[in-house]
Amino acid sequence: xxxxxxxxxxxxxxxxxxxxxxxxxxxxxxxxxxxxxxxxxxxxxxxxxxxxxxxxxxxxxxxxxxxxxxxxxxxxxxxxxxxxxxxxxxxxxxxxxxxxxxxxxxxxxxxxxxxxxxxxxxxxxxxxxxxxxxxxxxxxxxxxxxxxxxxxxxxxxxxxxxxxxxxxxxxxxxxxxxxxxxxxxxxxxxxxxxxxxxxxxxxxxxxxxxxxxxxxxxxxxxxxxxxxxxxxxxxxxxxxxxxxxxxxxxxxxxxxxxxxxxxxxxxxxxxxxxxxxxxxxxxxxxxxxxxxxxxxxxxxxxxxxxxxxxxxxxxxxxxxxxxxxxxxxxxxxxxxxxxxxxxxxxxxxxxxxx
Length: 354
Prior knowledge:
FMN binds at residues 129-131, 158, 180, 208, 299, 321. Belongs to the FMN-dependent alpha-hydroxy acid dehydrogenase family. It comes from Viridothelium virens. Helix content is 38%, strand content 9%. The strands form two sheets. It has a six-stranded parallel sheet with strand order 3-4-5-6-7-8. The protein is of the alpha/beta class. It has helices at 7-10, 17-25, 61-68, 71-78, 85-96, 142-151, 165-172, 187-199, 218-222, 235-238, 241-249, 258-269, 280-291, 304-313, 334-343; strands at 114-116, 119-121, 155-158, 177-181, 205-208, 296-301, 317-320, 350-353. The longest helix has 13 residues, at 187-199. It has 15 helices and eight strands.
């Protein structure tokens, strides 16, 4: 990439091709990139300690992650529902779909900018909601939210996040950010979470509908690997005034009984009692009133009929997702579901794929 290429004068977003050039140049300064980006599984988290851990082959990244993470951290990042058939379908769907490049198209004024719910972002990608970041680093979601702002990419905070909503909002600064809701059956608690999200600058509510209870993830179950039950990661809930009342009503002191407090929090979120379409008008109306009409979306949609139902009830968007295969084993691949939903002409929605 020529650093003087005129494309840089026409675009409003970073010239990402220069990052490749920088990496090719690094060896002249006695450096190499800290890790390879090849062959990285799309639904796992990798933390490498330093650049001496550089994998000689991209496929070794997974083994390095297993080595560096705690057993619990590795299991939580890598475990899928059942025998991982849905996860396998996700991978195979990307192998089946192919790009047909077109040549000699004028790309000299290219720009990767995109717009989502009125936010102008630097690329059509974003940070999906991931829970319990504290099991990977004590700062949890805070540095992730900060980097999202620096990159001008949308950030989504999970209700299962391990930092208070207000702190994550502050870390994200003026970045575009959305709040992913796992909805309790306690309406007062739901309203409190939504108010906190709105007051902290989160500009859309995304309800996840495929995780009213956890899928059966063999390694997590076998090792009792549930951070919330062991006093880790419930800070988002423990900082909520309504939930603090619930703890007091049950006589639970979160400082003296962190395990019990964490268990009560997550039992309110992944509670084993499914919501239905009948509850959605109340939730949409509540969020719209709190936020002044900001967007509401459903995450976890995989069927054309559900996408069409989302349009009927007034959703502003959907996330086509099977939770990376972590919830229902044997399900359709997200990419295949996305194709069917788009062909189903649910054109009144913003549609994303995670």
